[in-house]
């Protein structure tokens, strides 16, 4: 349904409409709710834009997202339109499948497509902390038209059954996270944070990719599942706590967009 909406609105989207009502700090009103949007640098006003739909963390709003160097800094430099919905009570209801926040996010993307020319093949969904869990919930319930999930330090129960799924999953989590605790599996299994998607995609063997880093003061360890019946899964872990790793979102976007990964 979402893909059809995006394609329909793509025919009538204009840059002028995007600037008439809202941008950056000024929220876009959508019924009794709202969201924020931030254009990339040096956009020509016509080329269809990839989209990163990012769900903010607990007690935050989209204004934080569109100013955040590790989120907005990444999208601005990479030609990606950043979309940041505002959660009710500065939070998200990701606990159950019937949450109204999924429908709200669908409406947000539909409204964005009225204002901007969107590339429906490159819609990415991200989030941090409670927002990471909401990103998981969104693609679980309405993710068939999503190219990839980029989740940071937040997820839903690995035992859930998802009726939909994104084309690809990328998740990062700190082993020492005490806020949204790292979901170790049986016997201390560190690959368990993506067990839901591995099972759903029909993935078999894990391929360790070793340690890597975007910045010298933080080392991540990567495991990939690329032998899946559908899609693929990537898990990055690090020894730290509850934060968005420097450069991680930008690095994932570069890889997904077919660009040479860079920092910032």
Task: Note down, in words, how this protein is organized.
With 264 residues, this protein is α/β, with parallel strands linked by helices. It has eight helices and ten strands. The chain has helices at residues 2-10, 15-21, 62-65, 72-77, 100-115, 130-142, 195-201, 248-257, and strands spanning 28-30, 33-38, 49-55, 81-85, 118-128, 148-152, 169-174, 207-212, 220-225, 233-238. Strands 1-2-4-3-5-6-7-10-9-8 form a ten-stranded mixed sheet, sandwiched between helices. The longest helix is centred in the middle third of the chain and has 16 residues, at 100-115. It is globular, with a radius of gyration of 17 Å. Residues 8-18 have low confidence and may be disordered.
Outline the secondary-structure elements:
Blueprint: H1 2-10, H2 15-21, E1 28-30, E2 33-38, E3 49-55, H3 62-65, H4 72-77, E4 81-85, H5 100-115, E5 118-128, H6 130-142, E6 148-152, E7 169-174, H7 195-201, E8 207-212, E9 220-225, E10 233-238, H8 248-257
Structural features:
alpha/beta, 10 strands, 264 residues, ten-stranded mixed sheet
Helix proportion: 25-40%
Net shape:
globular
**Describe the biggest sheet?**
10 strands, mixed
Radius of gyration: 17 Å
> What count of helical segments does DSSP give?
8
Helical/strand content category? alpha/beta
Succession of helices and strands: HHEEEHHEHEHEEHEEEH
Parts with pLDDT < 50 across at least 5 consecutive residues = 8-18
Mean pLDDT: 94
Strand order of the largest sheet: 1-2-4-3-5-6-7-10-9-8
Distance between the termini: 35 Å
Number of strands: 10
In terms of DSSP E residues, the strand content is 15-25%
């Amino acid at each position: 349904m979402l893909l059809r909406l995006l394609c329909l609105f793509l025919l009538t989207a204009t840059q002028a409409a995007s600037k008439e009502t809202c941008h950056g700090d000024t929220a876009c009103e959508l019924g009794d709710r709202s969201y924020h949007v931030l254009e990339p640098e040096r956009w020509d006003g016509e080329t269809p834009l990839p989209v990163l739909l990012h769900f903010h963390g607990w007690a935050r709003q989209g204004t934080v997202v569109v100013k955040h160097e590790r989120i907005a800094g990444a999208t601005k430099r990479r030609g990606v339109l950043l979309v940041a919905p505002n959660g009710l009570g500065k939070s998200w209801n990701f606990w159950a499948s019937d949450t109204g926040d999924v429908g709200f996010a669908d409406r947000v993307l539909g409204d964005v497509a009225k204002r901007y020319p969107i590339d429906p093949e490159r819609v990415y969904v991200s989030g941090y902390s409670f927002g990471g869990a909401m990103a998981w919930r969104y693609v679980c319930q309405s993710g068939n038209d999503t190219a990839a999930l980029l989740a940071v330090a937040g997820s839903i129960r690995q035992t859930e059954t998802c009726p939909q799924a994104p084309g690809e999953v990328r998740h990062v989590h700190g082993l020492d996270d005490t806020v949204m605790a790292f979901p170790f599996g049986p016997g201390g299994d560190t690959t368990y944070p993506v067990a839901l998607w591995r099972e759903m995609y029909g993935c078999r063997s894990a391929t360790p990719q070793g340690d890597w880093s975007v910045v010298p003061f933080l080392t991540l360890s990567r495991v990939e599942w690329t032998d899946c019946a559908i899609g693929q899964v990537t898990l990055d872990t690090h020894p730290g706590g509850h934060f968005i790793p420097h450069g991680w979102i930008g690095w994932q976007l570069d890889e997904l967009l077919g660009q040479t990964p860079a920092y910032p």
